[in-house]
Amino acid sequence: MVEHFFQCSYCWEEISMILDTSITNETYIEDCEVCCNPLEISLKFDNGELIFFETNSLEQ
């Protein structure tokens, strides 16, 4: 597990997430813990190291 910080594309607040390093490639939707808007989160790990992290807002 590793903690990762990023900025919400809706409210611009800094968000902290705990990521599981055993999952090598994942895309999922999670609500921002501050403004509750949905974010599409994509990430990739290689040998336990985060090599890609991206969030996209989901326009309604």
Summarize the structure.
The chain is an all-beta fold and 60 residues long. It contains no helices and five strands.
Please describe what this structure looks like:
The structure is a single chain. The termini are far apart. The strands form 2 sheets. Strands 3-4-5 form a 3-stranded antiparallel sheet, with no helix packed on it. It is an all-beta fold. It has one domain (2-57). The protein has strands at 2-7, 14-19, 25-31, 38-46, 49-57.
> Main β-sheet, in a few words?
3 strands, antiparallel
Order of helices and strands: EEEEE
Fraction in helix: under 10%
The shape is globular
Arithmetic mean pLDDT: 94
Cα(first) to Cα(last) distance is 32 Å
- Amount of beta strand: over 45%
Tally the beta strands.
5
Summing up helix and strand content along with how strands pair, one would put the structural category as mainly beta
Radius of gyration, taken over Cα atoms and rounded to an integer in Å? 11 Å
What is the helix tally?
Answer: 0
What layout of secondary structure does this protein have?
Blueprint: E1 2-7, E2 14-19, E3 25-31, E4 38-46, E5 49-57
Antiparallel strand pairs: 1-2, 3-4, 4-5
Descriptive tags:
single chain, 60 residues, mainly beta, 3-stranded antiparallel sheet, two-stranded antiparallel ribbon, 5 strands, globular, CPXCG motif-containing cysteine-rich protein, zinc_ribbon_bacterial
